[in-house]
TrEMBL record, chains A, B, C, D:
Transmembrane segments: none annotated. This is Glutaminase. Its EC number is 3.5.1.2. Substrate binds at residues 64, 114, 158, 165, 189, 240, 258. It is an enzyme of class 3 (hydrolase). Keywords: Acetylation, Hydrolase. Pfam families: Glutaminase.
Length: 304, 304, 304, 304
């Protein structure tokens, strides 16, 4: 039996000792205000036991973590057709997402880089009656938590400064891979990224990917095969150009966001979320990565 | 003595024989309507003698040719400071202008690729009181022709479909290399590109670069050193990724536009403009390139 | 209980129906002689039960599959130090392994692309007394099969035509990331790639990676953590620029070779090898990929 | 009338004041031994008047400057056919010559980058009876100086450390764009680059490119059109990724070498050579560039 409380306790002790906590994201002004000393971690296992430590009930901006959820909803709506508009390969290079887009005629490398997530957002804008509301309802339903909401300030902050996303969306448009207009799609995308959740809520949300497509309330959202694919994408593409490193050190499918959150899961076993706002050079939470390494080292479990 | 009338006559005979005239630009809807059989050519020499053949007095959209003029006006306004925001090297690669921008931290390779010309447009928007009007006046003054004007339909057409330019401008903005807002700068840029001139007018405009900075009316616009630099840029960067080929085959500084126009010059000797709307695969006028090759072969003169 | 015999039988029936079998590798002359209609598949489970179908006992050139084994031996010899000379990220781009090497100062992206495997070969050449013999012994010991050997003709054939590997090795040397001389390292590398095994032997060899570091004979070769890392690398980097696709469709760590072999494994469950010489455009066995997809679809098991 | 003696005198005064002289090339061990304080400059005009200053009669390794001469000899031997194996466009990027080669299927961007010059060397090896001897004779004949010779120590030094050139040659070979074997071609290439000349000899050698194809002894080596093309290539590609800068600041066709030499010319006017061993970050002679800028500023002459 794995003793999660002890493991979490030890992780927190180690985390507290670390003085170099990384850099809080600055490019979205609202995010730069967060206290870098925050740290939370929450685990839910397959039997719905829960364990937590630190600031696990304080909400933060999930940012790129939301890409897994928009992908999940889009797959539910249009299925395999999605893969005609976005590929499933790791992007490899740190700096040239837009250049890859140019080289590959407007087909983003995968749905977890910004360009790919913008295409997914475009699909949701096309298919949902009230895109923002319907996406929010989807999140609330899967997690069973009606209190989850967008953070309007964060969305507005990103709208004013998200020039790189405007560049990506316009480039996609030039290749015919954006069907709605740029402003509408990015308004949806910035709201999606602004979702505010705490670690506990995140694990309840991602329970569905750990549990073969069934959510906490036992409703089925995805087929086994769809879950396999989403988890495979998280493993190969979930951590920007540090995906290989995360697979290598941690060995779990997961997704990070520049808000400092990370969620990861061991299929059929547990789902875990961490939050620490300081980022490493690759844009992933420095202490979150460390905490998850300690977790899989302590449990001696990984998908490999 | 060079017999320009005979040379032009022979060039037209040869051009008429060519059946494969290239592809009229399609990405700007207004431009796709032009008759591909148009051909005009006009020469003005250092003594202001003029020679022409074909449709040399029919106006067309000069598009990228305008980049030399906005550069010229910007150099006049801020001088060497301009080179802190844009480099002077050929771009080399055909497809990855945006990727180069990412690799080089938002400093465009040179002022004659789109990204570079957008930075130059940004400078003019910052420095001119009434940017569009003042730029138009500059053009009218240098050429001594008050009838030159923007083509509002072409500008509007490009505004609706210029997603790649919106991508470039937003990417520049993300690097802090665009000081005004994207829409304002691109409105100026699309107008600048929409300038409608005929071959005759183009040679009168570019006379200033052939004549060491003095325009047809003998007013001085640029120093000898500034003219040297602008001509050097035309030679190394004036024909997209076919600049080497043009230098190699023709051997004159020049600039092409997707409207099918090309202007070129032999310093202190003559200035020449051609117009044929069909483009080769690299985006330069197919028959214009051929006509200029025939011209320098017949005259046995080039800068080399 | 999973009925492997039935599953294998059904896979062979499906495979037999496929007329388009891909292209046998041509760049190594010896390999181009292989009959494209060969097909074999072998499974060994955690209880050492074995199941097979087709040409599963006919030896073929394992080529890049050998990279996992040289990596494994090198990790055993120098441990974590290896990661100072080679990274662990997917390479992303299909075409530009050498360009990545230039951009990243001679540190190959991962040990499963050619440049990375050449660095690993260099390590073995430095550390082993009789590199080729000692590596062969290592293979024979892990698999418990003394009959395994190099194919001298294949090694010689690659030596004569492996200009791209000579290019990579010289580039590594120019960055100081090759300590022995180019010819010595490549002689080792070409021999390593020439190893001739059949599907049955391959599964016995890779049993060690499925079985947490213990080989069929119950000797321990690697720690759990080392196995996790090697399996993670196979998943993220084992199929050239189709690694994402393989993770997405099959969901197992694995490695392919241009000889048409693929080996894959579900940790603690089974190890499987397929052989079909025809390759798809990305250089992976066309029917091998298909057979493994059918296997994980039928068993409903994957690491995700 | 231009007063060359005064101009050269003033340039030397300025050069003497500069304390930061750049870095002597280190990657060829023999070159790293050169005294960084050397400076020489020599001019020959169209009337064969000569002017010099400093160490203008001390020989140095001309390195890449030799690429213009091998190109010239190859054009004389096979004419336009050469352009099927090498392109005429600037390479643009500083770091990725090999990656460009991969992207462009083994056709080097131009004959003045290493990969292109290696293809030209391959052509000479194929076409000349005694390649090294015949090339040397060609150099001696054009310059009218039988004392010019290879520097065997420099050639040997480069052979031992030229791994990047071995990489390029092998990559060319993998694309079928090298017809002879790698070692033979590189032996020729390293000798060609090791040619030892002083500034005075260099100007006599390049007189042929300034004088429309006729050498100092009035023998015709090239047609006017061939000279135009070679000069155009020097202008657009002669200074690595600083070609644009050189055209922009100096405005003359020219070629630099890592031995610290630069040769440049104003067609029909003069040919000039400089030597200062310290290089700038782009690999061009720091003070040589400065001296040539001062020369064209003082003479107010350039091709533009």
């Amino acid at each position: 039996m794995i003793n999660y409380p002890d493991i979490l306790h030890n992780i927190q002790l180690e985390i507290n000792k670390v003085s170099e906590r990384g850099q809080v994201a600055r490019y979205i002004p609202e995010l730069s205000k967060i206290d870098p000393h925050k740290f939370g971690m929450h685990i839910i296992d397959a039997n719905r036991n829960e364990f937590s430590v630190g600031d696990s009930e304080e909400a933060f901006s999930i940012q790129s973590i939301s890409k897994v959820l928009s992908l999940s909803q889009a797959i539910g709506l249009i299925g395999e057709e999605l893969w005609t508009r976005v590929d499933v390969e790791p992007s490899g290079d740190p700096f040239n997402h837009l250049s890859l887009l140019e080289q590959e005629n407007g087909i983003p490398r995968n749905p977890l880089i910004n360009a790919g997530a913008i295409v997914v957002a475009d699909i949701l804008v096309s298919k949902l009656k009230n895109p923002k509301e319907d996406f929010l309802t989807y999140i609330q339903d899967i997690s069973g938590d009606k209190s989850i909401n967008f953070d309007a300030d964060v969305a507005a902050s990103e709208k004013e400064t998200g020039f790189r996303n405007y560049a990506a969306a316009n480039l996609l448009k030039s290749y015919g891979n954006l069907h709605n207009d740029v402003d509408t799609v990015l308004d949806f995308y910035f709201h999606q990224c602004s979702l505010a959740l705490n670690c506990k809520q995140l694990t309840k949300l991602f329970f569905v990917f750990m549990n073969r497509g069934k959510c906490l309330q036992n409703n089925t959202y995805l087929t086994t095969s769809q879950v396999k694919r989403i988890n495979a994408l998280m493993l190969t593409c979930g951590f920007y150009d540090e995906a290989g490193e995360f697979a290598f050190e941690v060995g779990l499918p997961g997704k990070s966001g520049v808000g400092g959150g990370i969620v990861a899961l061991l299929p059929n076993n547990y789902c875990v979320a961490t939050w620490s706002p300081g980022l490493n050079k690759k844009g992933n939470s420095k202490l979150g990565m460390l905490a998850l390494e300690m977790l899989t080292t302590a449990t001696k479990q990984s998908i490999f």
